[in-house]
Amino acid sequence: MLKVGLTGGLASGKSFVGQTLAELGCHLVKADELGHAVLLPGGEAYEEVIREFGREVLNAEGFIDRRKLGSLVFHDPALLQKLNSMVHPPVIRREEQLIAAAAEKDPDGIVVVEAAILIETGSHRRFDKLILAVCSEAEQIERAMRRDSLSREEVLARLRRQMPLEEKKKYADYVIDTSGPKSETAEQTRRVYESLRGLK
Predict the structure, then answer these.
(1) β partners of residue 3
(2) What digits encode the pLDDT tens for the residues 142-181?
(3) Per-residue DSSP letters for 106-145?
(4) Confidence check: pLDDT of 200 > 80
(5) Would the N or C end of the chain have less CB density within 10 A of its end CB?
(6) CA-CA distances (angstroms) from residue 117 to 7, 8, 9, 23, 181?
(7) Which domain holds residue 74?
(8) Domain boundary residue among 70, 89, 106?
(9) Same domain, 114 and 73
């Protein structure tokens, strides 16, 4: 099975690329969904996060409020690193289980793991190929403000904490520009898929 990493920056279009690859027949694993799961009550990181950050990160139902947690860590690199060290190991274990299950079911298939900070964590080295979804910074800002109801300042602060897309390009085997219409992005994604199939 071919293992492919899919990454990008904030609101750079990686989810659309991932969904398109899934529609073309790839097995898609979304790290963000696994990150949600490990923070649920009973999840691998739930108790540890509450111990570290306090019960004020919980909502009335006892779930971790990701917005509250985010506002605590996003302005403090040391706290963000601490949170990542709690969340990433169980997420990677779950990814590996899903990759193994996909490989057993479809040994000649392609599994795509969509994750925001693959390169920053060094996780990109686990994959045979790496796809990067990019767009202009102006487009990232506009999309993130619209999608996440964030202010321009909040978006800029998050962008400054990420590795710039230009830097990420050095690691990528394929770059998909999502700035244009979705039909164009889908066509670029289809061409990448055909190239990946050719590697099988």
Answers:
(1) 111
(2) 999 999 888 999 899 888 888 999 999 999 999 999 999 9
(3) -TTSEEEEE-TTTTTTTGGGGSSEEEEEE--HHHHHHHHH
(4) no
(5) C
(6) 7, 8, 8, 24, 25
(7) 32-106
(8) 106
(9) no
